Every structure is written in structure tokens, then in C-alpha cells.
Request: fold
Amino acid sequence: MVTVQFTIPEVAGSFTNLTPKLYAWLAYFWGDIHTLGTAVPVSVFVPLSANTRDVYPDFTQALVAVPIPAAFGAFKVSLDDAGSGIDAAGVLVLLFGQHDTPDDAISAGYAAFGTAVSQQLNAYVEANGAMAPTPAQIHAIAASIKESVTGAIKNKLSDWDKFLTWIGQETQDEFIGYSYAFFGPGKLKPPKDSALDLPAIVDQIQYTFPYAKLEVQNDVGLDPCQSLVVAVNQAMTAVTAVLNRLRQLQAEYASATQAQKAARKISIEEIQNTALPAAKKSLADAQRALQRCRVLSGLNQVSNVGARS
Reply:
């Protein structure tokens, strides 16, 4: 078990008189042995807020950095890696400039934000497994999230707001850009207390996160669920072995003669219909037993710092 804490206290930049009021939306996401055993392998947390703009200061031009309230910029979660580094965590930051968009339209966009992040990340994992995304894939994920958010905002705008925007009497809030940090399996090894390398957002000027920090700590003490951790690891090894055998037979089938294909097909169907479902069931049973043990021992905790504010 490890505890991971993100702290993102501000967004800085060489602001000018043209810089609008800034506000940020943050989504935290993670996966471990418990989430990977469900239909939604990536969990997502977006802080609850009735208004995501009023909590940010006006007159950005007079500041060297815009403070991010702790309710948005601090998050902590405990992850169970089953003793083999099967955990991951990350954060996505969207940066906006405020103009004339009504509050109810912004609220609609924010409601769509968490759903879009969850859908995109889980769709990626379903298609690619635990492999880290490429820069192009990350850009595609971010573009889809942005499309969902801006679509929800536009759908909430009244015809009058749309008309005023069309004639130039209103300017809707602008999407400035996004930044992210992701730590895949094996990258959350404590002790870790270091700067969180969030890439700068560049849009005329650079927007940076100079004091962003990541802390990773071991949850100390004897693990009362250690025997179940071992069972999960053994079950995962068994599933991997079955999948590797299936892939081998499929590769052999592709290059086999017609006479050989019949025997390969029988073996492939037997794995798909019997061996693989049985191995997956054993893994799911082991994961559920471990999760029950974690809950009963009070170790399976997820908390957001400042979430009650």
C-alpha cells in the first residue's frame, strides 16, 4: 500500500493587460489492484464545486501567480499495488480564461468534464491495456475531453447569448490549454517527495505550475492481507500465462497449413471458452477477497484534501 498526494498551489505566468481572469479545472485519476478488477479500471475524481470561477481572484494582470484553492489543487489517495507495482496515478489540468459565459453554462461544462475524463481514460485502457499513451494519443484524449466540455457549454447557451456572441457583443470563456502528469505502473515507488513536472501551457505566454509537488509514502506496518496479496499475484500470473499461450496459438494458426489449422482452432477455442474464463474468474475472486480484507482492516481509503470546503 502507498499513499500518493498531489499538491498544485498556483499557476504562474508573465501576465499582461490582455490576460483574462484565469481558472483551472483539475481531474485526478488512478488505478490499482482493486480498480483493475472492475468494469471501470481507472477511477477519476473531480472536486465538487457549485461555481468553479468565483473562487479565483479577479485582476490576474496584477499578479505573478494565480492561487489554486486547496479544494481543487490538493488530492490524496491510497493505492494497493498488491506488492508488485500494479498501481498508477495522474492529474489533468485544464486552464480557462473567463469572459461572458453564464454560470449555468459553465456548470454544465464542469459536470461533463469528469464524465468525459473517465470515459476517455477507460476507453484507452480497454483498447491498450496498461501501456503508457504516446504524445499523439494524449493529444487525442485531451481533444475529446475538450470537445465534450465545450459542447456541453454551447448546448446550455441561450439563443440570445449565441446571438450576442455572433455580433461580437459577448465573448465566451476561452480554453487556454491543458497540462498533465502521469505515473504508470512501477513509477510510484516511495520514498518520493519531488517537484511535479507539469508541462507549461503555451498560449501567447507560458503558464506554469512552479510549486506543484508529488509525495509518495509507504503505508507502514504489517500487512494483514499479505496471503491474499500473494493469491492475487499468482492468479494474475496464471491469466498472463493463458493469454500468452492463446497469442502463441493464434500466431501459429496464421502461418499453419490447412491440415494444421484444424488442430490449432480446437486449442484456441478451448482456451477462449474454458481456460481463459476460468483463469479470469480465479483472478476476480482473489481480487474481491483482497478488497474485502482491505476494507475490513481499514486500509482501503481514498480522501480529497479540502474536499469539505
Remarks:
- The radius of gyration is 23 Å.
- Residues 139 and 178 are 10 Å apart (CA to CA).
